[in-house]
Amino acid sequence: MSVENKRRILIVDDSRTMRRMVATSLSNIGECRFEEAANGLEAIERLVLGPADLMILDLNMPELHGIEVLKFVRARPMYQSMPVIVLTTKGEESVQREAMAAGASLYLTKPFSAIELEAKVRGLLAEAGDKA
Amino acid sequence: MADLNQPPDDFVNQFLDDYFAECEEHLAVVRAGLLNLERFVDSSIADTAQLDELFRSFHTIKGISGMVGLSPAEQLAHEMEGYLRVLRQGEALLSKEGFDSLIEGTKVLEEVINAHKTHAPAPAIERTIEILREVVAGKDTSVTPAKGQPEQTQKTEDKKQWRFLFAPSQARSEAGINVNTVRARLQSIGDILSTTPLVHDGDVLFELIVSTSASESELDALKDLELTSEPIEPEEKVEPITPTSGTSQTISTSVRVDLVRLDQLMLLVGELVVTRARLEKNLKSIRTSVTPVQWRQLQEVHVAFGKQLRDLRNDVMRVRMVPIAEVFDRMRFVVRDISRETRKQVILELSGQETEIDKFLVERLMDPLLHLVRNSISHGIESEEQRIAAGKPAEGHIYLRATTAGELVVIEVGDDGRGIDVKSVAAQAPEVALWDDEGRIDFDRLLETISAPGLSTRDHADRASGRGVGMDVVARAISDLDGSLSVFTEAGKGTTFRIELPLTLAITDALIATADAQTFAIHRSSVQEVIEIEPGSIKVLENNEIILHRDEVLPLVRLSRVFNLKDKKEGSLHAFVIGTGNRATGLVVDKVLGLREVVVRSLSDPLTDVPGVGGATELGDGLPILILDVMEILNASRHVYASQQSH
């Protein structure tokens, strides 16, 4: 499979350690290309330059909060079907409702389990593939 | 079944280095942030941008600590974040107790992370967590703090607001122009009040509102970013959505490199320096067998090679340099802490924070500086009552200054306290003469005495002497870094410690000299000048050899006698003048051969730990020569002379 055909997963988190952990957790999926963004603005720019097959999104980030990213993305027709996993540090339950209302496909908390994250991503990618 | 929420060790272990590095970065941001926040204690204004930034740092530490299974750090960060949330949402004002609990929490958090790093037992966190919870529970809800940043609003008066639009595209991204670089460039000309994604004619644009006093030509310089820009009328109020503070994360174009790789690079450059020296030797040996034209061509290439190698060495060295602010910022925190502990009001004055030092030195300087600062506050600075009685300002001052002088970095730690009580030191070391014949303090000997191991914190009198603890540790650490330490103190006025360190330890310019057919190297940076001496001009005064140099008496130390070699029988001698003023000494050698670039190899084996020898090098012929530690040699010689005099 060529680079162009690989599925693109965008990992958005302001912690580079966390981005690496997420990418490493998903490294067994195969045929995936990981892209990273360290803040909300960069995430939107990345999506404008090329759509992603899935986005893993942190919420509490500088420049633009994850919820704002999600709202902006979901308002654009071309990103409406993109699976978005909100992956954020647990603590605020009201945020979960807000994230789901803004269009998150799934809400997971940190610390996350690598096995669980991989399973969820596989599931969402398969689901999106079936729809296409 | 394995707990899915408990990350397996091998998964976690591969991220530990990243984890510690990222925690360290956030803790540095936190320390600076807390110090900025201190002004707002008990104020009705909350610096929301600063609170946001602190909140995010703790939030990140909490998140990644949870991932690596360091739950005490996760819990602590969680509590800190909790208090900051309360402050951020305007549910409480920053109280003195609250601020102290943040400082304490940060300290314990750092200890927890460091303990994990060094596999040491973790410190207790329960009390700290309890205090943080008490602060949150006792929040005063009767007041609503005003939000905002007072300083920034004052400054905007002479500034103009501009609206920039940036359209991201593949081509721009490939040219390195993206929303992060655009923000970084705009930040360099003013304050970004907001960045908002917009949809315009189906395209996504970023709208950036910038407050700036930049001129038309400065704005013109942004042309390569292909932004559209327009000024905004003053009455058009723009609410900052994501306010940025001075220390907020700026988008950098830097890469992180492991220090080990830089060491490796420096080692390779070092080997190149030796190879070049070997080439030079070989070239000289063929000089007579080539034509003058061929010789000139070879020389030209060789000279160019030498110059490029020197540039390469400088550049590699520069890559390793970081501003000393990294160390000084840490001291701000320490000063705050100790002054609270000792109930003394202390103002820390920093200068030369931009001075760059080798990254290698940053960690190694932390402890000695910490000791010096701690001593200055605990033992140097008097109590408030004593200061007022002495006609001094109630607050004590601590100075941290850094400058470069040639190949040296000079760091001074000073205070305006009581000064070292030399009499009290003398009482504890009666065998040492701390004053010269004219009653002036011999600062070198004073430093030696207070740095003697085992002479620390013996009793109350010792503490009161104003010299404090651990000076032996400081002196050893500085000497291990090939540096020198000196002290200056005046009763009632204060004490200053001065540290001089070589900019780099790996490659240095050295003067090459011989004594009794042995070749030695001496760091160029420690030599003030090289002089020629006629043996007839040397006079002997109470066992000491001296000469008159520039109308001053210059004591001499013969290198040949230091190493039990033979003195040169006839002809003139050379001497290196080390030190200045009345501390100047001439180190006499047979002959100075010249100035060379040498690679310093350390001699760390304790069996080869010869006093006066600081390392070894080779000049390209494969034969090792010793690099002398001149300060050690001169200090040792003074002892010899002193004991000769006393017998």
Explain how this protein is built.
The complex is a heterodimer of chains A (132) and B (647). Chain A has 5 helices and 5 strands, in the order βαβαβαβαβα. Chain A is of the alpha/beta class. In chain A, helix 4 (93-102) links the parallel strand 4 (84-89) and strand 5. In chain A, helix 1 (16-25) crosses helix 5 and helix 2 (40-49) runs parallel beside helix 3. The model of chain A has no long low-confidence stretch (mean pLDDT 88). In chain B, the strands form 6 sheets. Chain B has a 6-stranded mixed β-sheet. Chain B has a 5-stranded mixed β-sheet with strand order 8-10-11-13-12. In chain B, strands 22-14-15-24-23 form a 5-stranded mixed β-sheet. In chain B, a hairpin with a 2-residue loop joins strand 18 (544-549) and strand 19. The longest helix of chain B has 28 residues, at 292-319. The N and C termini of chain B lie far apart (81 Å). The chains are: A alpha/beta (132), B alpha+beta (647).
Secondary-structure map with pairings?
The complex is a heterodimer of chains A (132) and B (647).
Chain A: E1 7-12, H1 16-25, E2 32-37, H2 40-49, E3 54-57, H3 66-74, E4 84-89, H4 93-102, E5 106-110, H5 114-131
Parallel strand pairs in A: 1-2, 1-3, 3-4, 4-5
Chain B: H1 9-13, H2 16-37, E1 45-46, H3 48-67, H4 71-88, H5 96-117, H6 126-137, E2 146-147, H7 150-155, E3 160-166, H8 170-174, H9 179-187, E4 190-200, E5 203-212, H10 216-220, E6 228-232, H11 259-285, H12 292-319, E7 321-323, H13 325-341, E8 346-351, E9 356-358, H14 359-380, H15 384-389, E10 396-405, E11 408-415, H16 422-428, H17 443-450, H18 460-464, H19 471-480, E12 484-490, E13 494-502, E14 507-515, E15 518-523, E16 527-533, E17 539-541, E18 544-549, E19 552-558, H20 559-562, E20 573-578, E21 585-589, E22 591-599, E23 613-618, E24 624-628, H21 630-646
Parallel strand pairs in B: 1-2, 8-10, 15-24, 19-21
Antiparallel strand pairs in B: 3-5, 3-6, 4-5, 7-9, 10-11, 11-13, 12-13, 14-15, 14-22, 16-20, 17-18, 18-19, 20-21, 23-24
Helix pairs in contact in B: 2-3, 2-5, 2-13, 3-4, 4-5, 4-6, 5-6, 11-12, 13-14, 14-19
